[in-house]
Amino acid sequence: MTLRDQMTHELKAAMRAKDAERLATLRLINAAIKDREIAARSDAKVQELDDADLIAVLTRMVKQRRDSARAYEEAARLDLAEKELAEIAVIESFLPRQLSQDEMEAAIDAVIARLGATSVRDIGKVMGALKAEYAGQMDFGKAGALIKTRLA
After folding, report:
1. Is the dihedral angle over the CA atoms 102, 106, 108, 109 positive or is it negative?
2. What distance in Å separates the CA atoms of residue 64 and residue 140, rounded to the nearest whole number?
């Protein structure tokens, strides 16, 4: 079952269960995907996004909601922060399992060894390889910092 089919199935299930919060989040996901498809059609004549593109859209949505939740917490709007965190939980249910810190470090070490990276100038090559192999499975902001310390 593709990621899109899974989302459609979950949307229908939320409608049947009358789960308003989950349904609203799933509709937000569909809207973001439609926006991305429209942009892709005008750029490269792509008819439909594949799972990797969908994961990129979902990852961006999670990041946006984390930033919003942090801003709401700083403004003492805990009700809005909780809503954002609930949306994150729904969105993350469609993303691949995130690598733990130890798994991420092991993956970085393996890619560095495989590419023979030795200096800070090789960070781009290492990041490119990691993004190709572990898309949606690791936080590349943290990975970048780890790579920098390993190659410094």
Report:
1. positive
2. 15
Q: Which of 53, 74, 92 is the endpoint of a domain?
A: 92
Q: Are residues 20 and 56 in the same domain?
A: yes
Note the pTM of the prediction, 2 decimals. Answer: 0.75
What gap in Å lies between CA 100 and CA 106, rounded to an integer? 10
Residues spanned by the domain of 145: 101-151
pLDDT digits (tens, 9 = 90+) for 106-146: 999 999 999 888 888 888 899 999 988 887 788 888 888 89
The CATH number of whichever domain residue 42 belongs to comes to 1.10.1510.10
CA–CA separation, 76 vs 136, rounded Å? 31
Which amino acid is present at 62?
V
Residues 88 and 109 in one domain: no
- C-beta of residue 62 within 8 angstroms of C-beta of residue 29: no
